[in-house]
Amino acid sequence: ARSINDSEKQEKREAILDAAEQLLRSDPQRLAVMQELADAAGVAKGTVYLYFRSKEEVLLALHQRHVDAFFDAFESRLLDPAPVDVEVVLQIARERVIGAPLYLPLCARVNAMMERELSASTSCSFKEHVATRLVVAGALLEQRLPQIGRGQGALLLMRCYAAIIGMWLLLHPIPHLIAEYQKRDFNFFQRDFVAEAMAAVRAIWIGHAGTPALERGP
What is the distance between the alpha carbons of residues 75 and 155, in angstroms, rounded to a whole number? Predict the structure, then answer.
């Protein structure tokens, strides 16, 4: 039956992404070759190529899975009738983005790959997917916080996301520069990333909404 075949295909695709995640967790700086990825997933190398044309596409798909996990958790919480405040939202961001070990390193890597290794079509499809998730989540947010204004929810989320990524790029230690920083006694950017990212997002939320509370709309 076709449904069974589709289910099996999805399971194999997820197994490949699971393997990629484990390889990256063991060494975030490495980019596994397809044979190594196939061995880790327990499939033939040709099977990997049935789902992904390159290792860069594997990384993009893995990053998209992380993005979807964040939006799934965020939307689920907004749909829950229980009261929601900014700290609850920040906790989701901390768990799924800020504190997730691979989310931001992979995000930075994927954005660099879009300039060099990924086709324009593949990159645009990913961007469109993220934009769709932002719009849907933003609409739910506007229902919970009407004072944001129609069409502003997605923009608020985008600004917060950009602040997190920018803070990570600014504060993330680049290994080969650490010794030079120490020689120069340059420590301005040696700050706690999680604390700074949370502070930036909190400021954006409260500044945009005018209140830390996310009241349920009518």
Answer: 16
Cα angle 153, 82, 65; round to 5: 55
Cα separation, 147 vs 145, whole angstroms: 6
Looking at per-residue confidence, does 136 or 89 come out higher? 136
What pLDDT score does 119 carry? 92
pLDDT for position 176: 75
Average pLDDT over residues 38-66: 93
Helix, strand, or coil here: 119?
coil
Helix boundaries (H) for the chain? 2-26, 34-41, 45-51, 55-79, 86-93, 103-116, 120-144, 153-171, 175-184, 193-209
Phi, psi for 214 (deg, rounded to 5) = -105, 90
Q: Is 77 exposed, middle or buried (0-12, 13-18, 19+ CB in 10 A)?
A: middle
- The C-alpha atoms of residue 53 and residue 119 are separated, in whole angstroms, by 11
Identify the CA nearest to 93 among candidates 157, 155, 189: 157
Residue 34 pLDDT greater than 70, yes or no: yes
- Residue 38 near residue 47 (C-beta atoms within 8 A): yes
Indicate whether 77 pLDDT > 90.
yes
* Least confident stretch, 56-60, 181-185, 202-206: 181-185
3-state secondary structure of 101: coil
What is the per-residue burial (b if ≥16 Cβ within 10 Å, else e) of 7-29?
eeeeebbebbbebbbebbeeeee
Q: Distance between alpha carbon 213 and the CA centroid of its chain, in Å?
A: 25
